[in-house]
Amino acid sequence: MTDLVFRARRVLTPRGVLAAQVRVRGGAIVSVDELAGAAEVGGAGGPAEIVELADDEVLIPGLVDTHVHVNEPGRADWEGFATATAAAAAGGVTTIIDMPLNSIPPTVDSAGLAAKRKAAAGKCAVDVGFWGGAVPGNSGQRARLHEAGVFGFKCFTADSGVPEFPPLDDAALAQAIQQVAELGSVLVVHAEDAAVLAGAPAAGGRAYRKFLASRPPEAEVSAVRRLIELAADTGARVHVLHLSAAPAVPLLAAAQADGVQVTAETCPHYLTLGADQVRAGQTQFKCCPPIRDRANQELLWEALETGVIGCVVSDHSPCPPELKHLETGDFATAWGGISSLQLGLPVTWTRAARRGHDLADVLTWMAANPARLAGLDAKGSIEPGRDADLVAFAPDETFVVTPDRLRTRHRLTPYEGQELRGVVRKTWLRGVEAGPGQPAGRLLTRPPPRP
Asked: Cβ distance 3 to 24 under 8 Å?
């Protein structure tokens, strides 16, 4: 078999950005060698096919997005595996972990997981893994799901928005965390306190401020506080999903300093969009928890920069445009979710670069750390032994977001019209070009724990 060698003036590696050649054999990286002038390809490595990147491109590792709602089977009219993974590849994402809800059936038992895998088979342009669900009444199924290879378990502490995936009350949450600890797995949590939400002002109408008031920061703070208590008591691994409320950050920082196994993520929309830009009736901005003000956003960036928040993932949660109720602009009834799987890298890079960050920072948040969360040792970095999941990225090229660029099933986005920095020119999955009509993606199972 002829090796494949990627040559670039800039390759993002754990040693820094290098002029290097990356040799790929059998879909895996076998060596990363610095280039000195016009180095020859071949030698001890043998003959190779050469892929030469342009001078304005950087070779980066494929992103790992651990928070994606594909919705197939059952709601494939919202999004399906073919369109979701094509969008992922177009955005430089080479691995996604699919959330257990919004599909019918949800992934709360072995039959649900089998239905997911059957729906995905032969359609995926990138690698796909699956979270299991923790809902009332499925505690007896969780060990089976774990054995079948789910990457962990997701639960809600407030209404999920779909009836087939109800939330856990406090007693059921405590039981789930204890069970996850015994399995050696991880519980990933949509953390909003249902009681706090019930006591908040009701959402209604076209005014975004009313919707924002209906999901106060204290709902997240209260839920995170309880998760930390349970994680400390049980020794379980707990991960807070899509953190939007900065007042929860000091709780997380203190818990992490005390050795509690609690981590957190946030999303590009919380880091870049602000409540001040949401006009009346613009329900394409609705998500739960909500986009908050700029002062809150600044604190989220600081938490990311200090490592309290470790991951930036999409929470890609699409729906048909009619479910956004754009004709009425009613935030109370519109579906809450943002479709952003393809745009996460340029959205985050645009703002991060303005703040003085380099690509290494962004890829730590969007590739290395999500891979670590999921236990994917073969993903998230360009180094020997890893999968050759690679992206040719032009960090200085700009583009304007228009619906025709997007590969998702539905193309409504709050980013429409924005000028972003950074263009994904080509994506490879295990050394093979990834994209529509190239279903080379594999269905992943949780790897065995490290020794």
From this structure: yes
Contact 236, 181 (CB under 8 A): yes
Contacts with 58 (C-beta within 8 Å, 6 or more apart), sequence order? 8, 10, 11, 12, 17, 359, 392, 393, 394, 395
Look at the chain and count its residues. 451
Q: Which two tokens stand for residue 304?
A: 């990311």
Model-level pTM? 0.96
Query: Rounded to an integer, what is the distance from CA 362 to the centroid of its chain?
Result: 13
Q: What is the pLDDT along the chain (451 residues), one digit of tens a residue?
A: 689 999 999 999 999 999 999 999 999 999 999 997 544 544 456 678 999 999 999 999 999 999 999 999 999 999 999 999 999 999 999 999 999 999 999 999 999 999 999 999 999 999 999 999 999 999 999 999 999 999 999 999 999 999 999 999 999 999 999 999 999 999 999 999 999 999 999 998 999 999 999 999 999 999 999 999 999 999 999 999 999 999 999 999 999 999 999 999 999 999 999 999 999 999 999 999 999 999 999 999 999 999 999 999 999 999 999 999 999 999 999 999 999 999 999 999 999 999 999 999 999 999 999 999 999 999 999 999 999 999 999 999 999 999 999 999 999 999 999 999 999 999 999 999 998 889 999 999 998 766 5
